[in-house]
Amino acid sequence: GRKPANPAFWWVNDEGDEVKWSFEELGSLSRKAANVLSEACGLQRGDRVVAILPRVPEWWLLNVACMRAGIVLIPGTSQLTAKDISYRLQASKAKCIVTNDTLAPAVESALSGTGSQFLKSKLIVGQGSRNGWLNLKELL
């Protein structure tokens, strides 16, 4: 018999939850995520996306998807304040922002400023839904 291929991606959190993707799965998921960014979010090559996420599997998936679509990913730490987020949005002219359920309130408070004038879409990573946000997992 053949031994199974090494995973392309293997993520384990503190609780022991695991996500393993083969190269084929990572390729397929990253194509789907690139399509979400291009179609559902209306982004084009050269547009910028700010991702304010902890190190969850979707963080790496977005990295690969942005490379595929020619979209510039601007990573942000989950420790950013509303003022930091607003500044980054304004300086980068980002057209999309991605965050999770926990960080969404801080992001929304930053969006009330002038930094959000270029935003076309907001993506949330998580199970829940939020008014005005697209859910990445549902769109995948």
TrEMBL record:
It catalyses: a medium-chain fatty acid + ATP + CoA = a medium-chain fatty acyl-CoA + AMP + diphosphate. GO terms for molecular function: ATP binding; fatty-acyl-CoA synthase activity; medium-chain fatty acid-CoA ligase activity. Its EC number is 6.2.1.2. Keywords: ATP-binding, Fatty acid metabolism, Ligase, Lipid metabolism, Nucleotide-binding. InterPro entries: AMP-dep_synth/lig_dom (IPR000873), ANL_N_sf (IPR042099), Mitochondrial_ACSM (IPR051087). The keyword Transferase does not apply. Pfam families: AMP-binding (PF00501). It is an enzyme of class 6 (ligase). It comes from the Eukaryota. Residues 2-112 form the AMP-dependent synthetase/ligase domain. GO terms for cellular component: mitochondrial matrix. One of its GO terms (biological process) is fatty acid biosynthetic process. Belongs to the ATP-dependent AMP-binding enzyme family. This is medium-chain acyl-CoA ligase.
